[in-house]
Amino acid sequence: MLVDTHCHLDAAEFDADRDAVAARAAAAGVATIVVPAVERANFGAVASICREFPQCRPAYGIHPLFVDRAKEEDLDALRETLRREPAVAIGEIGLDAFVEPRDDKSQSWWYASQLKLAREFDLPVLLHVRRAVDAILKELRRIAVAGGIAHAFNGSRQQADEFIKLGFKLGFGGAMTHPRATRLRELAATLPLEAIVLETDAPDIPPEWLNRGRNEPGELLRIAGVLAALRGIPTDVLVTATTMNAFAALPRLEMGSYCH
């Protein structure tokens, strides 16, 4: 049983064949899919997807790349959504120092505000950490939360160790399958197995064999196979460990009939 800890199944890229995508994921052994929101406008879509597909579990949050069109009242809407819709995490939240132009002050405000909300609801967080790991960690030390996942982790070993000390798991997916990603592959091979969870970030971050095509959760088994080969362990051992890690990071995954 596999857990895709980060998949935007509500994305428009899946509108034409979402049922088939979900069926392929199930056929590949993906029993649980975490679907994070990115802005207030898609909270409803995420909730709807999770009602339609019983293997899906929602997270709600405002992504750093969407804060430029967010309003302060969206934070109240997020709070109300969390009261009304059971969630496994607050996310996708965090910081992004890659895209230009950007408003770092606004990103920081939204990140800190949502960490406080995670603490209020005793929920873990799904963190977007692109080129901003140290700033992410600094705020986590100031506003402690109930752990979570550093999504699409691509930092240093020292930064990885700091996340682990704070009770976080690190998400690995398609980027690790590219042979040229030597530093990332070294991390995937040598980090403590109990610190790693699997993800696709579908429809984004496609694995090497899709040649920049649309990613989907059904690719997770093959991604797991790459990680198992890098670590020199059987794929089934890797799958069992990362699934246990996902449940440890997101304890509410195990709640039954949960999105209905």
Key attributes of the depicted protein:
disordered C terminus; globular; 40% helix; alpha/beta; 9 helices; 8-stranded parallel sheet; TIM Barrel
Structure description:
The structure is a single chain. The protein is an alpha/beta fold and 260 residues long. It has a single domain, classed as TIM Barrel (Alpha-Beta Barrel). It is 40% helix and 14% strand. The protein is built from nine helices and eight strands. An eight-stranded parallel beta sheet has the order 1-2-3-4-5-6-7-8. 47% of the residues are buried.
Produce the secondary structure layout.
Layout: E1 2-4, H1 18-27, E2 30-36, H2 43-52, E3 56-60, H3 73-84, E4 89-94, H4 104-121, E5 125-128, H5 133-142, E6 148-151, H6 157-165, E7 168-172, H7 182-190, E8 196-198, H8 220-231, H9 235-249
Parallel strand pairs: 1-2, 2-3, 3-4, 4-5, 5-6, 6-7, 7-8
Helix pairs in contact: 7-8, 8-9
Stated plainly, the CATH topology is called: TIM Barrel
* Reported CATH architecture: Alpha-Beta Barrel
Bin the helical content.
40-55%
User: What global shape is seen?
Assistant: globular
For this structure, what is the CATH class?
A: Alpha Beta
Q: Give, in spatial order, the strands making up the sheet with the most strands.
A: 1-2-3-4-5-6-7-8
Low-confidence stretches: 256-260
- Structural class by sheet pairing and helices: alpha/beta
Largest sheet: 8 strands, parallel
Q: What's the order of the H and E elements? A: EHEHEHEHEHEHEHEHH
Strand tally is: 8
Strand content: 5-15%
Number of domains: 1
What is the CATH H-level superfamily? Answer: Metal-dependent hydrolases
Question: What is the CA-based Rg, rounded?
Answer: 17 Å
Can you count the helices? 9
Q: Report the average pLDDT across residues.
A: 96
* Straight-line N-to-C gap: 22 Å
